[in-house]
Amino acid sequence: MLYKVKNTIEKFNMLEKGDTVVIGVSGGADSVCLAHVMNCIKEEYDLHIILVHVNHQLRGADADRDEAYVMSLGEKYDCDVRIFSYDVAKLAKERGLTLEETGRELRYEAFYKTAGERGKIAVAHNINDNCETMLMRFFRGTGIKGLGGINPIRDNIIRPLIEISRAEIEGYCLENKLEYYTDYTNNIDIYTRNKIRLKLIPFIEKELNPNIVNTLYRTSEIMAAEDKYLSEAAQKAYNECEVSPKRIDVERLKAYDPVIQRRIIRLGFVDFSADLHDISYSNVENVLSLAEKESGRTIELPHGLRAVREQSTIYFCRSEERKPFFYEINKDEKKYCKELGAYILLTDKKCEKNAKLLYTISFDYDKIKLPLALRSRKAGDKIYIAGIGGSKSLKKLFIDSKVPMVERDGIPILAMGSDVLWISDMKTSDRYKAGDTTVNYLHMYLLEE
């Protein structure tokens, strides 16, 4: 057993000499076995071990018993112990999650908090857990990545028992006289994982394949290797398609096989979503459909994410709703506009010499009727451009100027009705801008906050 675990550790390069290792210990057979094994090799690897136990406050006296037992293991192995206690039932309601999901979140929050930036986190997933996970993902619908099973190592999380069976673990505990406690909820078939473990796998072992656990582990290794290869190919393809951050060229995208296209699309969301499992096959296909649609079309995705077709590109962003804003601007009334990050002042006077001036533009006062509005865009807005001998809609101007859609609602404009006098950082109307024939001037000043 120790030989097999050490072989797994070396195979996946899980440990280095002098590592601090946080071990999640529930009190069950798997985690008790892991704590014992790591204690047996700690001198060889010069490890600093910390046992972490999370009391979910769900099983009354049994939960308190498990907590006390983990404390006793710390004394036995002469290592630090950290106990975390949470009212999981209450927090599950607050977070809108199931008890299972909330418990998992809280356990890993405790592990990460204890490990810090440099510590490693050892959890007791075994080869049977891998089998159950693969079947769960298969029934829910997954691709090659999901069939890669449980990663032996991910970031600073290591799984030294991932190639060990549950039977071997229980045998090891018996051989080494290791006491452990079984959570009674593990034997209740109301959870999907429990149904798979208690009913489905025994049926498969009896009727179809007595070695299904090891068969699926070998399959997961093949899938993980192929996923790694495809991921590297997709990253290279994504780099070729990306013309600016999170913006990919449609024609370059379409040049790739659909298998790589889907992976390119998923890579577009890597910086926005911690859990890409929530980006489904249908989500990806919907985004890919933008390649055949006109500019301006959008696809909404989970976690407030969005894909937008704009000109010859598809870009990825958060679906941040911008609230319309409106400020009535009267003459000689200085008003702060947070969207500009400055004060705006309309006046027919020269700016004071000591004023902290950021920007100024002058209009023909005789063509203007006050008050004006400093606001976000709205339907029907237009601006006069001398070069085309008439007005152009703001929508068309933004499109021609390649202003990203997500930015358009946040751009301040100065308007008189639907006539736009000035667009922040873009353009001033040629109809209202002061010129050679102007007699009376109205100055707009932007002043420092």
How would you characterize the overall build of this protein?
By secondary structure, this protein is α+β, with helices and mostly antiparallel strands. The protein folds into 3 domains: 2-219, Rossmann fold (3-Layer(aba) Sandwich); 245-318, Uridine Diphospho-n-acetylenolpyruvylglucosamine Reductase, domain 3; 326-447, no CATH class. The chain has 14 helices and 22 strands. It has helices at residues 2-11, 29-45, 61-77, 88-95, 99-115, 127-140, 166-175, 192-207, 212-241, 250-254, 258-267, 281-289, 394-400, 405-408, and strands at 20-24, 48-55, 80-85, 120-122, 153-154, 157-158, 242-244, 247-249, 298-301, 305-310, 313-318, 326-329, 335-337, 342-347, 357-364, 372-375, 382-385, 390-393, 413-416, 419-423, 427-428, 441-447. Strands 3-2-1-4-6-5 form a 6-stranded mixed beta sheet, sandwiched between helices. It has a 5-stranded antiparallel beta sheet with strand order 7-8-11-10-9. Strands 12-16-19-20-21 form a 5-stranded antiparallel beta sheet, with no helix packed on it. The N and C termini lie far apart (69 Å). The relative contact order is 0.08.
Question: In a few lines, what is going on in this structure?
Answer:
With 449 residues, the chain is of the alpha+beta class. It has three domains: 218 residues, HUPs (Rossmann fold), CATH 3.40.50; 74 residues, Uridine Diphospho-n-acetylenolpyruvylglucosamine Reductase, domain 3 (2-Layer Sandwich), CATH 3.30.465.60; 122 residues, no CATH class.
